[in-house]
Design goal:
Helix content: under 10%
Largest sheet: 5 strands, antiparallel
Radius of gyration: 21 Å
Strand order of the largest sheet: 1-2-5-6-9
Oligomer: single chain
Distance between the termini: 61 Å
Length: 129
């Protein structure tokens, strides 16, 4: 889109955040799962004189999971974090036809990358208890 009637750069038309948390009554196990999704957003502003169309980022689903287990009479904790479970790629594309979403065959892929899923395992121990 080459007009002044465009969305603000980086602003999404919608944002979805959702989380579930579980805590065992005895406090030994706790777990969390988080979901995030943003709407299609303008990443880079183009211009007619630059011969570049606006660059948009396609939506992607992001899911993170965390579980912690108390050990050693609740003085220690083992924690597992898994970030970006679905590992969906980022797609940045030139919005050639001014539609509100990616149009395969018309819009041009500008850049794509997959960030990867991250696994973290940690242990903490409280000497003060």
């Amino acid at each position: 889109s080459q007009s002044f009637d465009r969305p603000l750069q980086g602003q999404s038309p919608y944002l979805v955040n959702f989380g579930l948390q579980y805590n065992q009554k005895k406090g030994i196990i706790n777990a969390t799962i988080l979901y995030n999704r943003i709407g299609e957003r303008l990443s880079l502003v183009g211009g007619k004189d630059q011969l570049l169309y606006d660059i948009y980022e396609r939506p992607r689903d992001l899911v993170d999971f965390q579980i912690g287990v108390k050990v050693l009479k609740k003085r220690g904790e083992v924690r597992l974090n898994v970030s970006d479970i679905f590992n969906q790629p980022f797609y940045l594309y030139e919005n050639v036809n001014d539609k509100k979403s990616f149009q395969k065959g018309t819009d041009r892929l500008w850049n794509a990358f997959t960030p990867g899923t991250t696994f973290t395992l940690g242990f903490t121990y409280d000497f003060a208890k």
